[in-house]
Amino acid sequence: EAGVTQFPSHSVIEKGQTVTLRCDPISGHDNLYWYRRVMGKEIKFLLHFVKESKQDESGMPNNRFLAERTGGTYSTLKVQPAELEDSGVYFCASSHWTSGGGPHTDTQYFGPGTRLTVL
Amino acid sequence: GESVGLHLPTLSVQEGDNSIINCAYSNSASDYFIWYKQESGKGPQFIIDIRSNMDKRQGQRVTVLLNKTVKHLSLQIAATQPGDSAVYFCAENIGTSYGKLTFGQGTILTVHP
Questions:
Q1: What average pLDDT does this structure show over B29-55?
Q2: Closest CA to A88 of A66, A113, A109, A63
């Protein structure tokens, strides 16, 4: 089974430019999450999709960030315009809905991340 | 690979020793806890989890202990191997927050041959 994949692995852009990150979850996983880790800080939650719907976007820093998951398959995270403080590693994770303890106990499988550098 | 923050706790052990990595979690309402391992250039990899109705859970070479009284979580790795060298993160979740994980800062484990 293929794992979560992310593209690109690295992106270097200048302040004010636009960048779009892509995540392909594990096939069949309804839950898709975006997290990020800025230098020296913890991994922080950004948002959660269930299929194509945004379940929780409480972690999105501001309206320069736009996440989509059209068709409930892959997801994109666009940053427009990028600022210096957006630099960090952006992780995507996916999980499969099980009938056990609820969605919060479904194992999240992480992708390798996209390292974003804003100059 | 990804560099880590300047202030991450570190743990250095010899191959074959047992390792204990500690984590203080923040929310007394959290009811699900997970340990992740992150190697350089990779994303966090699930190791083991535990629900709040348990205080101990064992996996292969790993044991997680949960002390809800003091909001403390630990990961024990038996017979640590060089391949265990990585950054280890604890994460917590609350049932009302769906899958939103709150991560700890991480601990760097270095295993010397």
A1: 93
A2: A113
